[in-house]
Amino acid sequence: MDVTPILESLNDAQRQAVTAPAEPTLVIAGAGSGKTRVLVHRAAWLIDVEGVSPQGLLAVTFTNKAAAEMRGRIEALLDMPVNHLWIGTFHGLAHRLLRRHWREAELPQNFQIIDSDDQLRLIKRLLKNLEIDDSRWVPREIQYFINAQKDEGLRPKHLDDDGDPNRRQMISFYKEYEEVCARGGLVDFAELLLRAHELWRDNPELLAHYQRRFQHLLVDEFQDTNAIQYAWLRLLAGKEGVPFVVGDDDQSIYRWRGARVEHIHQFQKDFPSTSVVKLEQNYRSTATILNAANAVIANNNSRMGKNLWTDGADGEAIKMYAAYNERDESDFVIGRLRDWIDHGNVRADAAILYRSNAQSRVLEESLINAGIPYRVYGGLRFFERAEIKDALAYLRLIANRDDDSSFERVVNRPTRGIGARTVESMRAYARANSCAMWRAAGAIASDTLTSRSANSVLAFLNLIERMARETSGLDLQDQVDHVIHASGLVDYFKKDKGEKGETRVENLLELVSAAKSFEPDPAEEMSPLDEFLSHAALESGEGQADAWEDCVQLMTMHSAKGLEFPLVFMCGMEDGLFPHQRSIADPNGLEEERRLCYVGITRAKETLYVTFAEQRRLHGMDNFSQPSRFIAEIPDEYVEEIRPRVQVSRPMGRASGLSRRQSSIAPGDDIGIRLGQRVRHGKFGHGVILNCEGQGAHARVEVNFETAGTKWLVLSYANLDLM
Hints:
With 723 residues, the chain is of the alpha/beta class. The chain folds into 5 domains: 4-100 and 194-281, Rossmann fold (3-Layer(aba) Sandwich); 112-184, Arc Repressor Mutant, subunit A, CATH 1.10.10; 318-381 and 544-661, P-loop containing nucleotide triphosphate hydrolases (Rossmann fold, 3-Layer(aba) Sandwich); 383-536, PCRA, domain 4 (Orthogonal Bundle); 678-722. Helix content is 44%, strand content 16%. The protein contains 28 helices and 24 strands. A hairpin with a 3-residue loop joins strand 22 and strand 23 (709-714). Helix 3 (35-48) packs across helix 4 and helix 6 packs across helix 7.
């Protein structure tokens, strides 16, 4: 077969990588530079030109979808099946090995894999059997500890408590957990990788067999490998193997998962004969977007260095909008989306990116109000998230003790010693006596339960009654704030030291913001709490788009990796939010945040909007922030500042430094206004200026009045008193 078809669609750098000699090769593949194409063509080249048997290749990807796509493209390129090609995720390949060599791995033949939820339930049962208080020793924290040790290749016997009693207890839990898994023949995800590594490490003859077989190792997303994955690859490669790894140190954004960008540098030390190929030609974005991304990432010190370029058009400037608050920001985004859609563009070609999941709530509400279908990619909509449902269940139970669904959801969340058997007794009593579970709980607590169970049930009933009394008469946001704390939900999730726990706490605090900004309808004959609960239920049901519909994509920056869109909005570009507050003082953390910004920018193919707010209500607090330092790292020539036609006080940050510019309008007389300024109107009362438009006598302002809602007023006739 002529080699031309394999190489004809490749550029010079891609050809250099695909045809590299049989020696360790590190391909630094920039965003949109065709890394999957290189991996696919490398496999085809080895099989068809170099005469390597498909059985002699092992290809590692990070998702099953990517593995299936790679296999299909290799077969299409070769016009032949490659059934013997070992291609899959680290976990999938490790599982395949352990099934084949279960004896050597010291596993039962019918060992069972447990997922993350199964693992967590197992840890909870373990604590229960040990009679351990799971309010002090949080199951998720134990799970995080165990998996983190396994990701580092460490068993309990390898760990030292360093004189720390808490660490000593965690190590003890790890040991107990291992014994339970061994008795049940259970293998969790982290165990798959660790056990596969130990399989080769402890069986030299078996390792030698696979080293002879798999001389060519193809690895995708190499920058995302953790310690045990890299150790596994090094063992397999040995001294004779030919690892061909593709990655991008500028897109390493999963440090919190254990990924180590340092592996890209370590690879060249472990394999001294490594040749490095850089893929810098981008086939996705305009030159303006690429130049901005290059300028931002250049501020990172610990990188190999590359410069993305394209032979395509320069494209339009990056649009930057300075909003007064998160509502103004979301209104701006919706307005630009409407223009996009009205010009015949596909909704699914537009993406809204944000750093924190909690930011999605205001954007979701605005999209629903505008009638624009959307999908939250890689996650749940705000009111569908488990922690939000927990908090709403408490609020519903306070509002209605007969709400059995809410009762069952929170009766033992956070855990308070009310087990499944006790709950089943409540259900049985409620069925027999045709009553709500609230009444059933009180009845069996004073009659049939043991004293310990009865005390737990009564404590829960008293908690609900006490919260109802304490929130009576409070404003809606204060009711919500009190409940998420008094119920123990905030403290419960704070004990989960992983990013998931922190995110859940942030979402609970964002629920307070939702309540604070909620405006009850005066026409509704409902309490503000009841109306808010109805609002939450409707937002998580009707008006939501299905995944397969043409809808705007909402996602975190992390979820956006690997995707691309003609139109991208990067929202919430403020110091403390992005970069995140916890990373600003940590040089390594700040560099990872900058890599995340680089990933966000390079998702855009044609049009990119960057927005930030002077004031943002997030996690239950009003924050006044400076624009993100990443904005200041984008050179002026690539940015177009979008400002209202009326000049008002707004924060601005440019490459010359962050500053605050202030000016005012004078419609008729010398009246200066600024966004966020409080005013008073003779009819509508007190309010806050949200927006301005027009000039001179035709200038208008949008004011959010405390009692009358939002109104647009012509300044010349409004007679506003500035405060």
